[in-house]
């Protein structure tokens, strides 16, 4: 197989719902990623944080209630915290897995800030699901009590949604690029990156959660990756999802992907952004390929045996 530069985006939902689950989940994830590294590919890892950033936000809100000196923790800070503890677990799991296979490569996590537009209309209509899945009653209660906004998420329950502005610029890009060129394994753009906007010469955090699929596609473009892989909870993308005539997709073109998006086959907040991000990456330069598959199928997906591939 040709040696490729691959950006691999891991789903926040595939990282477990709590610390013990995360420890186990990242071990499995590390195996899947080191399989790709073992083939000689250059791999850059990004990850989501939907469940985790919601958990941190809830914890910090409770803390603020107990200790009146503590103000509200902005979501940008919660994203930074999620990057740190997920990156910490991830880099150690990768290190361990590589050592076991006698691969000597440095691995580190880069706290990544991503610039957004403060005027992005996403601030007016929250769309990104975070935190745990709730029953309708729990969601109604939280809506009353905290003024949060909820949506029904792909038939799996109700989740709080927050603004999700488009990523415009990866602030730490040159550092990430240098590390990749040096042969390091880099975990970056966690949770879509810490959302910041420019105030004259400076950067200021903003309460939002950038979609990790869009941030990862931007990273893949900027690093001139050959392939963009999204590892999630489903083996393939479906049209007529969860309907009688559901059909799983193998290889589709960008034009087909756009057609299906327009016909409303992919739920916003979950699959829509993945397909859209892949289409953006693939159409940005000839020869670029994207793949969406389940975490445990990464290797088979790369060999073309499963997953949904999006090509030019
Ligand atoms: P991640 O944490 O990996 O970003 P998401 O939950 O955001 O995962 O998105 C993946 C989920 O999207 C799947 O597990 C599935 O429940 C849902 N989904 C919505 N529409 C589709 C579709 N058309 N085909 C496959 N999965 C879909
Ligand atoms: Mg997601």
Structure description:
The protein is α/β, with parallel strands linked by helices and 312 residues long. The chain has two domains: 12-27 and 43-125 and 163-225, Acetylglutamate kinase-like (Carbamate kinase, 3-Layer(aba) Sandwich); 234-312, no CATH class. Helices cover 39% and strands 23% of the residues. It has helices at 19-38, 50-66, 75-100, 136-146, 173-181, 212-222, 254-262, 271-283, 298-302; strands at 5-10, 42-47, 107-109, 113-115, 128-134, 149-152, 158-162, 169-170, 185-187, 194-199, 202-205, 227-232, 238-239, 247-248, 251-253, 289-294, 308-311. The strands form four sheets. An eight-stranded mixed beta sheet has the order 3-9-2-1-12-16-17-15, sandwiched between helices. A hairpin with a 7-residue loop joins strand 13 (238-239) and strand 14. Helix 1 (19-38) packs across helix 3 and helix 7 (254-262) runs antiparallel to helix 8 (271-283). The radius of gyration is 19 Å and the shape is globular. Magnesium ion binds at residues 11, 48, 50, 270.
How many extended strands? Answer: 17
CATH evolutionary superfamily of the largest domain: Acetylglutamate kinase-like
Shape: globular
> What small molecules are bound in this structure?
adenosine-5'-diphosphate, magnesium ion
| Helix segment tally | 9
Instruction: Calculate the terminal CA-CA distance, rounded to whole Å.
Output: 20 Å
CATH-defined topology of the largest domain: Carbamate kinase
Cα Rg: 19 Å
Spell out the helices and strands N to C.
Answer: EHEHHEEEHEEEHEEEHEEEEHHEHE
Poorly predicted runs:
none
């Amino acid at each position: 197989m040709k040696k490729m530069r691959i950006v691999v985006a891991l789903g926040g939902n595939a990282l477990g719902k709590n610390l013990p689950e995360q420890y186990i989940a990242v071990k499995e994830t590390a195996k899947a990623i080191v399989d790709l590294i073992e083939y000689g590919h250059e791999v850059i890892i990004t990850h989501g944080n939907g469940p985790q950033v919601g958990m941190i936000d809830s914890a910090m809100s409770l803390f603020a209630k107990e200790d009146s000196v503590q103000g509200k923790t902005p979501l940008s800070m919660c994203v930074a915290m999620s990057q740190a503890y997920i990156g910490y677990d991830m880099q150690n799991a990768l290190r361990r897995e590589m050592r076991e296979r006698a691969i000597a490569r440095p691995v580190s996590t880069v706290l990544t800030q991503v610039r957004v537009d403060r005027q992005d209309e996403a601030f007016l209509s929250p769309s990104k699901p975070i935190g745990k899945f709730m029953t309708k009653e729990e969601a109604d209660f939280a809506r009353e009590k905290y003024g949060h906004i909820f949506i029904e998420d792909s038939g799996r329950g109700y989740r709080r949604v927050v603004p999700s502005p488009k990523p415009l610029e990866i602030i730490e890009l040159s550092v990430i690029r240098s590390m990749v060129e040096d042969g390091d394994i880099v975990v970056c753009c966690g949770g879509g990156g810490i959302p910041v906007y420019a105030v004259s010469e400076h950067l200021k955090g903003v309460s939002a959660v950038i979609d990790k699929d869009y941030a990862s596609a931007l990273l893949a473009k900027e690093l001139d990756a050959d392939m963009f892989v999204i590892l999630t909870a489903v083996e393939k993308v479906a049209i007529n999802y969860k309907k009688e005539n559901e059909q799983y997709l193998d290889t589709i073109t960008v034009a087909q992907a756009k057609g299906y998006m327009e016909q409303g086959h992919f739920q916003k907040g979950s699959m829509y952004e993945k397909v859209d991000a892949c289409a953006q990456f693939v159409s940005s330069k000839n020869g670029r390929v994207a793949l969406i598959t389940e975490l445990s199928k990464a290797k088979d997906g790369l060999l073309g045996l499963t997953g949904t591939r999006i090509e030019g």
